[in-house]
Amino acid sequence: MLSYLIRRILQMIPTLAGVILLVFLLFTFFGDDPAEIIAGLGASNDQVESIRNELGLNRPLWAQFWGFIEKVVTFDWGRSWATRETVSSIFASRLPATLTIMVPILVLEVGLAIVAGMAVAYVRGSLTDRAVMIISTVALSISFLVYVIVGQYFFAFRLGWFPVQGWSNSVWTNLLVYAPLPVLIAVLVSLAPHTRLYRSFFLDEIGHDYVRTARAKGVAENTILFKHVLRNAMIPILTNVATQLPGVFIGSFLIEVFFSVPGLGREVYAAVGRSDYPVIQAVTIYLAALTMVINLITDMLYKFVDPRVVLK
């Protein structure tokens, strides 16, 4: 296990180095001139040149790249070009709001989808199974914006159960007052595709020989589902969850925009619109690093879920 972990970490280093190099080259050769973006349209050539000197853009390319690596390692990306707030403080102040929304969404959608997928797999081929699949297909064909508009109108305007928008400095107030509506809508949207996906995982396991053998021995169907099928289906479920985890730290752009959640997702969305390079670069690189770490942890969990898995 330890040797596998060390090898994976060593493999991550060149991958992350490639990401850093790619991001640097893309923003250096294909992006707009940072000095012109900061200076604005009415700036003189002298002002633009002064900003270029201040940002170190007149230095040799290798010196700029080394400075870029220092930013990655020290997490010192300077200030946002638009808000003049330090990038580190943007992460520190926006990330809690994103986690307040996205962590409950992830926990609820995975938990409910596992229960729903297993329940539908249990009654596979029945009228209930077909009805759930039809409803899921119809739900998948509806745009997320429709869910947001209808959810805000019905739950907020008509019933008055939740505020449409808002945020506070209290974590509990946010969780109990402002977060329930976006969490509810996001879970409803994600439940259909995840139910279909997890149902296919369970049905795939149900078709294996070990399930038929257990039935032949007289093992109860509930025991087969919860003790054998669920455990073996956890590997593809973990893989699916691992692909979603990086998005938790960015959040859903639409959720944070439409519900005025001051999270990292909305900040990145705004940064892209105003060409705020320091924020975009930092998010891109650290999200890539986080994705690699999550994939490593997921691979380690495979061994915990199924001891038959061999890590090489």
Write up this protein:
With 312 residues, the chain is mostly helical. It has a domain at 87-271: MetI-like fold (Orthogonal Bundle), CATH 1.10.3720. 78% of the residues lie in helices and 0% in strands. The chain is built from 14 helices and no strands. The longest helix is centred in the middle third of the chain and has 36 residues, at 87-122. The model has no long low-confidence stretch (mean pLDDT 81).
Write the layout of secondary structure elements.
Blueprint: H1 2-30, H2 34-39, H3 45-55, H4 61-74, H5 87-122, H6 127-140, H7 144-158, H8 171-178, H9 180-206, H10 209-216, H11 221-250, H12 253-258, H13 264-273, H14 277-305
Helix pairs in contact: 1-14, 5-9, 5-11, 6-9, 7-9, 9-11, 11-14
- Could you say which structural class the secondary elements and strand pairing correspond to? mainly alpha
Order of helices and strands: HHHHHHHHHHHHHH
Strand content: under 5%
- Percent in helix: over 70%
| End-to-end separation | 9 Å
Rounded radius of gyration (Å): 24 Å
